[in-house]
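quick q for whoever's on today - can somebody do inverse folding on this one?? i tried earlier but teh output was garbage lol. C-alpha cells:
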C-alpha cells in the first residue's frame, strides 16, 4: 500500500538521521577528551621541569658550599726546606776556542828553491832543528865545491910564499938578498895566507846558505799545519809553510763578562772540556786581559792546558773556573725548575700561599745546586711537587731539615 510504504520509509529516514547525529556527537566528545588530555600532559611536563630546575639550583648551591668547606679540609701538605747559607766553591762557567799557546810559523829562511821532499805531516812531533822539507841544492853544491877548490889553491900559494921566505932568510946573512927583498917576500907570504882565509870564509858562507835551504823546526813541538808540497818553488815571499805549537802547549781563549772577569786571577784553577767529549783537562789561567771590549763589554781570559789528543786548535770547549769560595744557599736539584724566562723556585710565602722566585744557578754538585742570586737563604722553598703547584695556591708547609 502506498500510504504504508511512505510511513515506513519516513521512519527509516528519521532513524538514519538520529544515528548520524549520534555519531557526530560521539566524535566531538572524543576530540574534546584528546584536547583535555594533551593540556594535562603539557601541564605535568612543565611542572616536572620547574621542579627539576629548582632541585638543580638547590643542589648547585649546596655543592658549592660543600666544596668550599672541602677545600679548607683538603689543603695539601708540601715539603719545604729553609736552605740557609753554606760555604760552596764559586764556579764561573764559560766557553771559548782552543789554540796553540805559543804558535810558531815556519817559512823559508834562506834563498829558497824547488822543494824536493816534505818529511813531516800535521799532528807529528818534531825536535828542534829537525828538517821539515828539503830544497833542491844541485847548483849551490857546485858553488860550494868551487869555493872549496879555491881554498886549496890559495893554500898552495901560501905554502909556496912561506917556502920562498924561508930560503931568503937563509941567504940574508950571506948578503945575497937585501932587506927590501925580504920585506917583499914577507908581504907576499902574508897576502897568500890572507887569500886562504878569504877562500875559507867564502866556503863557510856557502855552506851556511846551503844549510838554510832546508826548512827546519825552530824548536821542538807539534806540527799543526802544512802548506807546501814537493815540486813547489818557494822563496822569501812564500809566506808560512808550516805552523807548529811549541812543546805541544795549548790554551783556551775564553771571552768573559766584565763582572766575571773581575773575579778571575792569574793562577785560577780551571777544568776544560772540549765539545763532543767528556774529557776533563785541568788547566790554569795564565793571562787575564787588562782591557774590556767597549762593544761587547767582555774581556779575554787565557787558560793554559797541557797537550791532549782531543784538543784541536780552532775547536770549541767549555770551562769551569773555581774562583774561590762563597756563602750561598744550597738546594736539592728537585727544587730548581726551568721555564721560558730562566730558572726559578717556588716558595711558601705569606698566608702559606705559593710564590715564584727567579734565581741564578751557581755550582751544581752531588751536594745540590747553589743559588748565586735570587734567595737570601731564609725562604721556605718547595723541594718536591713544584710542577703540580700554581702561584697563589694555599698549602700546608712541612719543614724538612736542610742538607748542609
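ok took a stab at it. sequence:
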Amino acid at each position: 500500500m502506498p500510504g504504508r510504504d511512505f510511513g515506513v520509509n519516513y521512519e527509516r529516514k528519521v532513524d538514519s538521521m538520529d544515528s548520524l547525529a549520534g555519531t557526530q556527537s560521539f566524535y566531538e566528545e572524543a576530540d574534546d577528551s584528546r584536547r583535555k588530555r594533551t593540556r594535562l600532559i603539557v601541564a605535568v611536563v612543565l611542572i616536572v621541569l620547574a621542579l627539576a630546575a629548582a632541585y638543580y639550583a638547590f643542589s648547585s648551591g649546596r655543592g658549592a658550599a660543600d666544596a668550599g668547606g672541602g677545600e679548607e679540609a683538603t689543603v695539601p701538605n708540601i715539603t719545604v726546606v729553609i736552605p740557609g747559607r753554606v760555604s760552596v766553591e764559586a764556579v764561573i762557567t764559560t766557553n771559548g776556542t782552543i789554540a796553540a799557546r805559543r804558535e810558531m810559523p815556519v817559512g823559508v829562511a834562506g834563498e829558497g828553491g824547488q822543494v824536493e821532499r816534505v818529511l813531516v805531516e800535521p799532528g807529528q812531533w818534531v825536535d828542534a832543528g829537525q828538517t821539515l822539507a828539503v830544497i833542491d841544492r844541485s847548483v849551490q853544491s857546485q858553488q860550494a865545491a868551487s869555493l872549496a877548490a879555491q881554498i886549496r889553491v890559495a893554500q898552495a900559494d901560501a905554502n909556496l910564499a912561506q917556502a920562498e921566505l924561508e930560503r931568503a932568510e937563509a941567504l940574508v946573512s950571506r948578503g945575497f938578498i937585501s932587506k927590501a927583498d925580504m920585506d917583499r917576500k914577507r908581504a907576499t907570504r902574508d897576502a897568500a895566507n890572507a887569500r886562504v882565509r878569504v877562500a875559507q870564509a867564502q866556503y863557510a858562507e856557502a855552506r851556511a846558505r846551503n844549510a838554510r835551504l832546508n826548512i827546519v823546526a825552530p824548536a821542538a813541538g807539534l806540527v799543526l799545519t802544512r802548506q807546501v808540497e814537493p815540486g813547489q818553488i818557494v822563496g822569501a815571499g812564500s809566506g808560512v809553510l808550516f805552523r807548529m805549537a811549541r812543546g805541544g802547549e795549548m790554551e783556551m781563549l775564553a771571552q768573559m763578562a766584565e763582572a766575571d772577569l773581575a773575579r778571575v786571577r792569574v793562577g785560577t784553577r780551571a777544568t776544560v772540556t772540549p765539545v763532543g767529549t767528556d774529557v776533563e783537562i785541568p788547566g790554569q789561567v795564565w793571562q787575564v786581559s787588562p782591557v774590556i771590549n767597549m762593544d761587547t763589554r767582555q774581556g779575554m781570559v787565557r787558560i793554559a792546558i797541557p797537550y791532549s789528543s782531543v784538543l784541536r786548535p780552532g775547536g770549541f770547549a767549555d770551562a769551569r773556573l773555581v774562583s774561590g769560595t762563597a756563602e750561598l744557599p744550597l738546594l736539592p736539584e728537585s727544587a730548581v725548575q726551568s721555564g721560558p724566562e730562566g730558572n726559578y723556585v717556588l716558595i711558601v710565602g705569606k698566608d702559606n700561599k705559593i710564590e715564584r722566585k727567579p734565581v741564578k744557578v751557581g755550582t751544581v754538585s752531588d751536594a745540590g745546586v747553589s743559588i748565586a742570586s735570587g734567595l737570601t737563604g731564609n725562604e721556605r722553598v718547595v723541594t718536591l711537587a713544584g710542577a703540580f703547584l700554581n702561584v697563589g695556591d694555599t698549602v700546608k708547609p712541612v719543614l724538612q731539615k736542610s742538607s748542609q
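fwiw The helical segments are 2-73, 138-172, 179-211, 258-261. also The longest strand covers residues 86-100. so keep that in mind when u check it
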